[in-house]
Amino acid sequence: MPATELIHDPDRHRIEFATTDPDRAHAYLSTAFGDITRISGGRAGYRCRHVRLGPGPFHVDTLEHPMTGDYRVDPLPVLAVTRVRRGTRINLDRDDRCGPGDLTVYGQPGEAFRVRLVDCVTNPVLIPTTAAAEVARNRPDDDLGLLRFTSTRPTDPAAARRWLRVAAYVADSLRATPEVMAEPLLAGTTTRLLAATLLTTFPNTWITEAHPRDRTDATPRALSRAVAFIDGNADRDITAVDIARAARISVRAVALAFFRHLATTPMAHLRRVRLACARDQLLAAEPGDGSTMPGIAARWGYADIGRFTTDYRHAYGQPPRHAGGTTARPHDR
């Protein structure tokens, strides 16, 4: 292997880097993860390999470090959760040792940390802090304060398993259909899914209790404002907070209004509206215009054509058809 090898395939949203030079690793890892102010542990036999999947704003990584080395990392600009696949990862500031199978957040937001990697392979997942704030906020203008994790380990084994299922689903989707996962609606939805799962996996200060006003605000008039906003903005990467702001109530009040008056959820209503938009686009497609069923499905938030076909058949009593009249099959790509 040469001292440094960098492979970047933008069409598949994959970056791979490998080096035997600690200085080059320092420069690269500082770009990939934020400022790394020091790598120590000796130059002899140094090796580092990093693979990154994802179009952004989230990333799913593999980091291989088959030796012992210490890193000092300045405050990260993102939230990071990692699973140790091999070896040992030690948070030197907390004397917290993670071995194979263990799951941990990198450290407290806004704080530098020191970590030692011992013959280590880890799978970090990086998520914007803004996405976590988006899913944590109840009222659109709530001041959440500084995010603090009361533990850097999962609340319980069930929470850890939930995170691993979601992370595996996202990683598998990125490997199978990276161009689909880059669609704006899917990228935004996936980012918030990871952020919400992170906040329910690791105990933190952003999980808040319901407010009595949430129940009194869940009125038909507020529901009408929410429905109008969804119907008029289904092509945008809108969030629960966006809907709450348009309805002029809290996120929980919006959810209660949809449940109370329509027996559904805001996101389920949004999915139905987007499905209807996909149907309209399929019906309007002409042979030779470049439209494809997977492309249209991805455009409206479906990573899996099989799920799209199932939802379409359930809603309209027949399978979807694209230009030329071909019926979708569950495993079409």
Describe this structure in words.
This protein is α+β, with helices and mostly antiparallel strands and 333 residues long. It has a domain at 4-130: Jelly Rolls. It is 41% helix and 22% strand. It contains twelve helices and nine strands. The protein has helices at 22-33, 129-136, 157-176, 178-181, 184-201, 213-216, 220-233, 240-247, 251-262, 266-284, 293-299, 305-316, and strands at residues 4-9, 14-19, 36-40, 48-53, 59-73, 78-91, 96-98, 103-105, 113-128. Strands 1, 2, 3, 4, 5, 6, 7, 8 and 9 form a nine-stranded antiparallel beta sheet that branches. Strand 4 and strand 5 form a beta hairpin. The longest helix is centred in the middle third of the chain and has 20 residues, at 157-176. It is globular and about 65 Å long. The model is unreliable at 328-333 (pLDDT under 50).
Question: What are the main properties of this structure?
Answer:
333 residues, alpha+beta, Jelly Rolls, nine-stranded antiparallel sheet, 12 helices, 41% helix, disordered C terminus
SSE arrangement:
Elements lengths: L3 E6 L4 E6 L2 H12 L2 E5 L7 E6 L5 E15 L4 E14 L4 E3 L4 E3 L7 E16 H8 L20 H20 L1 H4 L2 H18 L11 H4 L3 H14 L6 H8 L3 H12 L3 H19 L8 H7 L5 H12 L17
Antiparallel strand pairs: 1-2, 2-4, 3-5, 4-5, 5-9, 6-7, 6-8, 6-9
